[in-house]
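Mods, move this if it's the wrong board.
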Amino acid sequence: MRSSKRAGFNLLSVVQTVAITAATMAVISPVLKTARSAGFQLMATQSLNQLGKASHLYLMDNEDRFPPAMEARDHSIHAWFGEVDDSKHTDPKTGVFYPYLKGPTFRDPSANYKPYLGDGTGFGYNWCTLGSDACATGNYESFNHSQNPAELSQLSHPGETVMFASSVYVNAQWAKGDGQFYDYGFVSPPSLWKGVPDVDFRYRGATRVDLDNKTVESDGIALVLFTDGAIKPLKKGDLEDKLFLR
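Not the wrong board. Structure tokens:
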């Protein structure tokens, strides 16, 4: 009898411990998730700050003209972030900002996407307005051969013109894609998203692919670097076309 009571007491203790642990984790988990997201956001901000400083040094050496977004070649693509070969391997040492960076840029662990057209940092360049004249001419097919990048003097409001932002390419299933998220070094104005933003609102929120409505939704925020060097956290509804134009 004594042994049976002791076993029953031990079982009750285990049940109580499990219940207390579960309740504690239910309270702590959201806090830990928020702290983790805040840490990623801090690292991303540091990386964007590096890119901002490097880009302004580049402008000083290139008569205030922004770098072209991308140029397709025979067996590779030369983008602003470096040379991309047929296997999607990127050489960051060939990127236009590399000489101005003190070491490699920070890589955002939250942007753990499949390789495609990017350098793995998780940030995209305003290719349509700064890296080419596609938005000004409406010739969006020139993406692979960017022409006439902007000059700083052509920007009406540098403090309101996006230079870089957290980015992603969602290979949407309704466009015969595989539904996966890919590393992408470019961002576009909202009117070109067609329900699939290339600006990534991955911080402090969740991204959801809505197959029924053929859209990608997010309640998080994106980090955006403007041409005057300011970095702002913005929600999807905060971004308008005018922030991407000259």
